[in-house]
Amino acid sequence: MERLTEQPSKYKDLEKKSVEELIRDINREDQLVALAIQKVLPDIAALITAVEKQLKNGGRMFYLGCGSGGRLSVLDAIELPNTYGIEKGIVNVVLAGGVEHLVEALEEKEDDVEEGWETLQEAKISSADIVVGISASGTTPYVLETLKKCREHSIPCGSIVGNPDSPISTYSDYPVEVITGPEFITGSTRMKCGTVQKMLFDMISTTVMVRLGRVKGNRMVNARLTNNKLVDRSTKTLMVEMGLTDYEEAKSLILKCGNVQKAMDFIRSGKNV
Predict the structure, then answer these.
(1) Start and end of every SIS domain (predicted)?
(2) Is the pLDDT of residue 107 over 80?
(3) Distance CA 227, CA 258 (A)
(4) Residue 243 resides in a domain
(5) How confident is the model at residue 110 (pLDDT cuts 50, 70, 90)?
(6) Backbone phi and psi for residue 94, each to the nearest 5 degrees, phi listed first
(7) Four-point Cα dihedral 55, 56, 58, 61, nearest 10
(8) Are 124 and 256 part of one and the same domain?
(9) Are 164 and 179 in contact (CB under 8 A)?
(10) Of 9, 27, 197, 201, which one is least surrounded by beta carbons within 10 A?
(11) Domain total for the chain?
C-alpha cells in the first residue's frame, strides 16, 4: 500500500519563507481538497445512503477514530441534537482514549487494538447500527481492528481514509478514499486530511438530517431554543413559513411549542394559542 500522506512535502526550507509565502502555499494545498472530494462523490453518496437507511430503521451511527479525525467527529456529533433536534445517542463517537479525554490528545491510544470494540460492545452495538471508521493513513490499528470485529458480527461499516487501497477500506462496506497527496508539513495529517474529514462530516450529518426530515426548505425547523439568537431565528423562520406578521405573537408560540416544526404543526391543527 502506498502511503501518500507520509511522503515528503513538496515545499522546501519552510523556516526561510515569509508569512506571505507560507500562507500562499498552504492555501494552494487547501484548494486541492474540494477537488479531491469531488472525485469520490459517488462513494460518499453510497455511505450516506447506508447511514440514512440504518437511522430510518431505528439504528445508530458511530464515528470511530483517533487523533485529529476522531476529535473533529466529536465536534460534528455534539452539534446535531441542538441543530436538528435529534435525541442524543443517535449519532455517537468512539474516540481512542475516550471522548471524556478529548483535549488530552492521547495519540498512543491509536495502537490499542481492543478498546474500540470494547466501547462498541458497551454501547450494545448491533447489525441495526453503522460504524464509520476515520483514519488519514488507512492503517490505524485502533480503527482497523475494530472494523474487523464489526465485520465478524455483521455490523455495516463505512470509512474515510486518505490513502489508496488501504487495509481499513478493505474492511469497510462503504469506503471513501480522498487522495490529496503529501501534506504541507510532512506527515501532518491534521492539515489537508483534517480538512477533508471536516468537510465529509458536514456532508454526512447535514445530508442525513435533511433526508430524515429535520429541515424544511433550507431552515433548521427542529433547532432547540438554547439561546436568544436561536429563539429570534426560529421566530423569524416561523413568520416566514406561516405568513405571520406579529413578531411577539410568533415568539410566544415558539416558546410554547419548543421549535418551529411543532409551532407550524400547532397552527395547522387549528387550535387556539
Answers:
(1) 51-214
(2) no
(3) 12
(4) yes
(5) confident
(6) -105, 105
(7) 0
(8) no
(9) yes
(10) 27
(11) 2
Amino acid at 254: I
The whole-angstrom separation of Cα 42 and Cα 50 is: 12
Residue ending a domain, among 162, 182, 211, is 211
Q: 7-66 pLDDT, tens per residue?
A: 999 999 999 999 999 999 999 999 999 999 999 999 999 999 999 999 999 999 999 999
191 lies in the same domain as 103 = yes
Cell numbers linked to 105: 490528545
On whether the CB atoms of residues 203 and 38 are closer than 8 A, the answer is: no
Q: How many CB atoms lie within 10 A of CB 45?
A: 14
Q: What is the Cα–Cα distance from 225 to 28, expressed in whole angstroms?
A: 40
Co-location of 201 and 233 in the same domain: no
Same-domain pairing of 133 and 258: no
Kindly list the catalytic residues.
79, 110
Q: Is the pTM of this model over 0.90?
A: yes
Q: Which uninterrupted H or E stretch holds 63?
A: strand 61-65
CB 133 within 8 A of CB 64: yes
Give per-residue pLDDT as tens, 230-273.
999 999 999 999 999 999 999 999 999 999 999 999 999 976 65
Pair 25, 118 in one domain: yes
> Are both 37 and 96 inside the same structural domain?
yes
Distance CA 113, CA 149 (A): 10
Q: Are 173 and 149 in contact (CB under 8 A)?
A: no
| Chain-centre distance for alpha carbon 207 | 11
What per-residue confidence (pLDDT) applies to 105?
Answer: 62
Closest CA to 177 of 131, 139, 219: 139
Strands 61-65 and 91-95: parallel
Domain residues for 32?
4-211
Q: Which of 91, 77, 96 is nearest to 135 (CA)?
A: 96
